[in-house]
Design a protein that fits this description.
By secondary structure, the protein is of the alpha+beta class. 40% of the residues lie in helices and 16% in strands. The protein has helices at 49-56, 65-71, 116-131, 166-171, 180-199, 255-260, 265-281, 292-295, 297-301, 325-338, 349-376, 381-384, 390-426, and strands at 4-6, 15-16, 22-24, 35-36, 44-45, 61-62, 80-84, 87-94, 104-111, 140-148, 151-159, 205-206, 215-217, 223-225, 232-233, 242-243, 262-263. Strands 2, 6, 7, 8, 9, 10 and 11 form a 7-stranded mixed β-sheet that branches. Strands 1-3 form a two-stranded antiparallel sheet. A two-stranded antiparallel sheet has the order 4-5. The structure holds adenosine-5'-triphosphate (ATP) and magnesium ion. Its main location: membrane.
Length: 428
Amino acid sequence: MMCFQYFKDKTRSRQQRSAPELKEQSKSDYSGTQRISKSSCLETTPRGIPELYEEKAHNLRVFSFSELRHATHDFNRLLKIGEGGFGSVYKGSIKPADGNGDPIVVAIKKLDNDGLQGHKQWVAEVQFLGVVEHPNLVKLFGYCAADGERGIQRLLVYEFMPNKSLDDHLFNRAYPALPWKTRLQIILGAAQGLAYLHDGLEIQVIYRDFKCSNVLLDENFKPKLSDFGLAREGPVAGRTHVSTAVMGTYGYAAPDYIETGHLTTKSDVWSFGVVLYEIITGRRSLERNRPRVEQKLLEWVKQFPSDSKKFRLIIDTRLENQYSIATARKIAKLADACLLKSAKDRPKMSQVVESLNQIIQDSDEEANISQESFESSEIDSSESSKKPNQLEATESWKRRMTHLAKLGEHVEGASRRRFMIMQRAKVP
Ligand SMILES: Nc1ncnc2c1ncn2[C@@H]1O[C@H](COP(=O)(O)OP(=O)(O)OP(=O)(O)O)[C@@H](O)[C@H]1O
Ligand SMILES: [Mg+2]
């Protein structure tokens, strides 16, 4: 097993100001062995994440703790936008790197002070996000490592994603239901992000934590994967897997990985299959508050095969019938392939992207045909009006989202005002 350890440079000031130094603790996965290169399994390269990180680390900004404290008004709870298993996320604003121009809105994750595990996650995130670059992966602006009076502080500064996560839009009833077409676009973007990690780099990256809450959405609902704390470099050439301690999120981790600790890109493919069923059903992979037979999503959907009549019964009722059943069946079939028991039988993410592109293209054509026939058959207008088409649904949903965002701005404005009032109240 390989892991990295953080080495503090005692010659530096108390507030760490340079790139984190990363050292391999065990060389078993690296030394003298050849890596699988992106272009061909025959070509090899000696470079791994630490080398690539060395090359690209200069792109990352190193923030002082006081800069980030200032950016978040001392980590004010009114600026807290989320909380995960490893820390809290705040909205903040920082100065541009050259000091000129408007402040940049960012998301700042402050890891809990829980010692080695938190630190390992932070190192992995800095390393992987420092190396990768893709429109479907969240951008890391920089980080902060400060060992001061307040103890060990580890923070990450990301681009701000204004539309929360896929998890919020699929499962939180406070948001309008996500239209079918938008679900398909989001899942395609997420698949492209994963395919890039698996095949688009000099090294292979296994993400290990694919789930709806790690799919963040930008102002146009374009998805970006976040959270690289559990990411691992893929196996070296000649090996089939990486051996690791089993980590991830219950309900998403592949059973073969849980059983053996053998991690491959196909473990991500399994998690992707779980999320496909989540977008079809609008249910989480695990819901304890449901009747026993419905608690585990994958067990429940097995009773409703994609080619059966009763398949319709599992489709998210919040879609209010505004989806294409033919497309939903194809998505379920793809999910079943991703969820095959034997990891090697699952498709590669690049094949999943291909299939999704085809499914979406077919679905658009189908929508165009039905739109044309809808327009040309104004004969039975009362009947037609009972079948609102998908495009209209997406438009009306977009209008509702814009309205909601406007309301959000007011709420934010109000909390900012509350915050300023609190600040003023503190002034003696
Ligand atoms: N770059 C970002 N821009 C905007 N919001 C973000 C950003 N990163 C995280 N968030 C918000 O913070 C929440 C918490 O994120 P975090 O990754 O810490 O936890 P999680 O994904 O919910 O759970 P887990 O710790 O299991 O991954 C996210 O769900 C999202 O709403
Ligand atoms: Mg997360």
